[in-house]
Amino acid sequence: MEPKDKEKKQILLRLSPSLWRELAAWAEDDFRSINGQIEYLLHECVKQRKTGKEKLK
User: Fold this and answer.
1) CB 48 within 8 A of CB 40
2) Is residue 8 part of a domain?
3) Which residues have C-beta within 8 Å of that of residue 44, sequence separation ≥ 6?
4) Is residue 30 part of a domain?
5) 39 in a domain, yes or no?
6) pTM confidence score
7) DSSP characters for 2-55?
8) Which comes out higher in pLDDT, residue 47 or 6?
9) Domain that holds residue 44
């Protein structure tokens, strides 16, 4: 991670209630906040895109 990556950017994200519930349950299973879970999932997707993998495991 570059030093500037420690500075967090804020975004407004609108989710359907059903997606919110799914993410909340998943985050709880992984002992993360919902925000942390979304950030983790986005990071994993970007990493897989860079390596050319097609599916999220």
Assistant:
1) no
2) no
3) 56
4) yes
5) yes
6) 0.75
7) -GGGGSPPP------HHHHHHHHHHHHHTT--HHHHHHHHHHHHHHHHHHT--S
8) 47
9) 19-52
Task: Calculate mean pLDDT across residues 14-27.
Answer: 97
pLDDT band at 43 (very low <50, low <70, confident <90, very high): very high
Percent of the chain with pLDDT over 70: 84
Q: How many domains does the chain have?
A: 1
Cβ atoms of 23 and 15 within 8 Å: the answer is yes
Nearest to 9 by CA among 34, 33, 30, 39: 39
**Residue among 33, 15, 16 at smallest CA distance from 24:** 33
Q: Classify residue 12: in a domain, yes or no.
A: no
